[in-house]
Specification:
By secondary structure, the chain is mainly alpha-helical. The chain contains 5 helices and no strands. The chain is globular and about 35 Å long.
């Protein structure tokens, strides 16, 4: 077995740290952005029932179809009309929910594109989709 000098091993590990730290910071920023949603939405399967549907598995799911949640007629109709959740549709919905799903009672949208991007990244990473 080849032995590497301690300084070589330390240097190799140091090269990995900035990427790891950046990933941790990104994840933390995404978690903070998702705080905008957490009051109404759980993200884990079997999560606490809140005002909005749980968001586990949302990416790729047809709108208004999560079992065990009583969706509005407007959201069910949007799903029947072909609305499927992906990064683009989530971005449009989070930006202006009432424009995307007419008759839907939802808080005003989130104007910041950067915040929406972080929320969608968080959902993608943590929703089990």
């Amino acid at each position: 077995m080849m032995k590497l000098p301690l300084c070589a091993v330390t240097f190799a590990l140091m090269l990995l740290l900035p990427e790891t730290a950046a990933a941790d910071e990104s994840t933390e920023a995404e978690r903070k952005a998702f705080a905008n949603c957490r009051a109404c939405h759980a993200i884990t399967e079997g999560g606490k029932k809140l005002a909005g549907p749980p968001l586990d598995g949302i990416i790729g799911r047809q709108a208004g179809t999560r079992d065990g949640f009583a969706y509005s007629k407007a959201m069910r109709d949007a799903g029947r009309g072909g609305l499927v959740w992906n990064a683009a549709t989530l971005d449009a919905y989070i930006a202006n929910p009432r424009a995307m799903v007419k008759g839907k009672k939802f808080l005003p949208g989130i104007r910041s594109a950067e915040t929406r991007k972080k929320i969608i990244a968080y959902l993608t990473r943590h929703s089990g989709s």
